[in-house]
# Entry
Amino acid sequence: MKFFDLLRLVLGNLSRRKARVALTAIGVVIGTAAVVILVSLGIGLQKSATDQLYGIGDLTFN
# Structure
């Protein structure tokens, strides 16, 4: 099969199964967003905890 035959086959199958394509795309977007949010939350919590622990050592007594 040539490349253009494969491309036509893929586009034909995608156009026939529009609901499946839409749900798959939505699932990929939601999954990617969830991973980005969880990684960002983890980095933020780690930075906050580290800053609090280093802040304890900054106390000085007169």
